[in-house]
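Subject: two folds for Thursday's group meeting

Dear M.,

Sorry for the delay on this. The cluster queue was jammed most of the week, so I only got both jobs back this morning. I'm pasting them in the order they finished. Each block is the input sequence followed by the predicted structure tokens. Could you check whether the formatting survives your parser before we put anything on slides? The first protein is the one we discussed after the seminar.
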Amino acid sequence: MSKTIAIACLQQGKAHLVNEDNFYLAGRYAAPGELISARKTCTGTAGLQFFAVGDGMGGKGLGDESVRLALHVLGQHARKQPAAGRFDFSGFAQKYISDANRAVCAHLSNSHEIVAGTTISLLAIDNDTAYTASLGNSRIYLYREGKLHRLTRDHLAPLPEIQKLSRQLGVPGDLILTEDDNLTRTVLARGDILLLATDGLTSRLSDDQIASLLARPAAFVQQIDNMFQLVSRQEGEDDLALVAIKILDPDFVAGVQDYDAAGSRL
């Protein structure tokens, strides 16, 4: 089992009528009445823990509902996982992404002329190992020993004057995950911080700025609160969702072990 502490923050951007970003923490996501601003914390001791962020698009009733559907399906799949035994993340992620995409597509079936859907970035912690999968440009980072490592790559197709997502939920047809969909495996060490964030944060803070904020001498929750407040004070146009997890002990029953560097591919 892995002992963790986690914090999730959410804020609506001033350019939007409704917040189309959301997070998944401790089996929950933000309800419609919590979307203007939300902050939640939790501690975890389960052998298998799930976290996610998503950035919806399409406007009210489309983007916000798309991301909530994706997180709802994640909760359904997470609750079906056995408490013990080998966790097949690749199989889990493939089945989840396929089912979530179908659910989002069904919701968007009458909005053919509107670009809609949601990004999704998923983190699963299985005892002393972290797994990721991601579609879109919401990111997952690992902060370890003063260095920030980006575990995901943005799925963007550069176009004149704009950048368009090249992978997302809400695209008709089967979505088959490959290594390019940010399937990673990381062996955890005590003190690791994992950060999931939509582009409402990463478009306003560079990787160097994120690393600098995490390096400041403060308690973990205060570090994330400071980061969130710094971005919030900028009153950005875009919505923002982030989840941060600190590994207090990657195997607190069996004791702490020494691990090599993280980030190997599945």
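Second protein, same layout:
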Amino acid sequence: EVLDRIRWAQQKGYASTVIPFDGRSPSDAQKLTSFCRQLYDYSFVAKAIPNKQKNHLLLVVQTAPAIRHFFNGEWLEWFALMTCVEQATAHGKRFACARNLGLTFSDGERQEVDVVLLLDGQSPILIECKSGEFRPDIDKSVGLRKRLGLSGRHLVVCVAGLEDEMAKGLSAMYDLSFVSERGLVQLIERIV
């Protein structure tokens, strides 16, 4: 929710956004406040101001281009890359990873893949990361899978916040592996 609100404020050109605490337990409000404080500590937001009277937290968004790119989806790419590295390392596998890998096909067509994981002796795992609307890009992912001769198991579409039931349905329908960021760790662990 916090990331969605920051991204929405940035897209609309607003200087700030509010994280409401109404209807939340004191524990949940404290967790949100702590998370937002970390965002501030690492300069992902310019200010994090609690307002006890209005029972919310005001976040002043950061305007730096690098931060805007991060909230527009780059965070998910980094998460996917680090998930691959952590899982391959934990299982003692020989591997290589890349983020934003450019592919050029023999006909001159170019595509970029958000994350690629190469495991010793296995087909590559390609991960496309989507933190917003993903439906218009499904055909591109299906085409890439076919063009590279990969199984649906090896082309992953990681969609932030995707519900598990929808991920299962989309995976069956398109012969791709749809997961949320929550399910990505388990998927990579099974593959590794």
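Two things I noticed about the second structure. DSSP finds six helices and eight strands in the chain. The chain has a mean pLDDT of 92.

Cheers,
T.
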